[in-house]
Amino acid sequence: MTFSTEFIFRILGAIAAAVGGGMLGRSLAVSLRTDTETYVVIIGLLGFLTGLIVTPALTVRPLRKIRNQLSSMPSGRLAAYVVGTFFGLIVAALLSQPLSFLPAPFGQIAPLAAAVMFIYLSSMVLASRQHDFQAIFSNLRPGLQWGKGSEEPEESYILLDTSVIIDGRIADISKTGFLRGVLLIPNFVLLELQHIADSSDALRRNRGRRGLDVLSMMQSESPIPIRITDMDATEVRDVDSKLVSLARHLHCPIMTNDYNLNRVAELQGVTVLNINDLANAVKAAYLPGEELQVKIIQDGKEMGQGVGYLEDGTMVVIEDGQRLINQTMNVTVTKVLQTTAGRMIFAKP
């Protein structure tokens, strides 16, 4: 039988609180000159229950939150915090001796307050100027010229949203070589994809399974690295907010097709790579008067119109094309409209 860390800390905290409660009960009984055992048992039990409830909130959970924040923190910022703490301790140690000569109680409080203040200030200063800090240390390395570093830049990440994985076009885009960096997929995105694949609704289930198939194909065929990460943003609950928070921590963009996530991320200063915008940007541009070949497959909204589609999915509305349904023919572009849904071309035979 296995026990979780939180359960073990609960028991240890409950025992420690029970012992402390028993000692407090004994002291109260002696001062009140009453029955010692009653006070020891009652206050000891109260201490045991308090320790059982409160201990995880004071030990395991804060440590887990700190661990998650450190794991999602960029390496440069983490190094800046560590070096800042070291410098702060050095300054506090140099000042502790003179400060200890202050009259009581300042002689006891001032060294501790100075240590906390200098650690905080040095950590914040170095973290806010971490890029300058890294540049200084790289320039001071032997064998490197001033202002020229021979190291490769830090890895750049692109966070993938559930919608862009289900869409599937990311697999083809990754093969073109236009993307640079590491495609990062958090576990909470993978978990949401699994929930969709296990849905009772047939459409959602098929979408989720398609997303899992796309991921599997990308891991085996994509020329750029793909990583599954345990990094999480525990301060928020929903997946979109977690993605935005994680992108802000890592200073990286989010790739998505979700309009709402796109807007929220942009409002918080996070770069968004939208595949729909990319698809619209790379579509071939047609000007009035140019000719193209299209197969008319259905009626249009207006009387006599026919509708066909180009290979990239662009809709072509052909005047007087209703009588030519199921025929492939050359048409002349008369007008091009750019709408929120994409590009629409009007043409005539």
Overview of the molecule:
This protein is an alpha/beta fold and 349 residues long. It has four domains: 54 residues, no CATH class; 65 residues, no CATH class; 125 residues, 3-Layer(aba) Sandwich (Rossmann fold), CATH 3.40.50; 65 residues, Nucleic acid-binding proteins (OB fold (Dihydrolipoamide Acetyltransferase, E2P)), CATH 2.40.50. Helix content is 56%, strand content 16%. It is built from 13 helices and ten strands. The protein has a five-stranded parallel sheet. It has a five-stranded mixed barrel with strand order 6-7-8-10-9. Strand 9 and strand 10 form a beta hairpin. The protein starts with a helix and ends with a strand.
Q: What shape does the CA trace take?
A: elongated
Termini separation: 77 Å
The main sheet comes to: 5 strands, parallel
Domain count? 4
Q: Examine the secondary-structure arrangement and name the CATH architecture of the largest domain.
A: 3-Layer(aba) Sandwich
Strands of the biggest beta sheet: in what spatial order? 3-2-1-4-5
Number of strands: 10
Strand content: 15-25%
Enter the CATH topology name of the largest domain. Answer: Rossmann fold
> Helical region count?
13
Q: Could you state the order of secondary-structure elements as H and E?
A: HHHHHHEHHEHHEHEHEHEEEEE
- How is the quaternary structure best described? single chain
From the alpha-carbon coordinates, what is the Rg to the nearest angstrom?
A: 32 Å
Helix/strand/pairing category: alpha/beta
Uncertain segments = 142-154
Corresponding CATH superfamily of the largest domain: 5'-nuclease
Overall mean pLDDT: 80
Give the CATH level 1 class of the largest domain.
Alpha Beta
Helix coverage percent: 55-70%
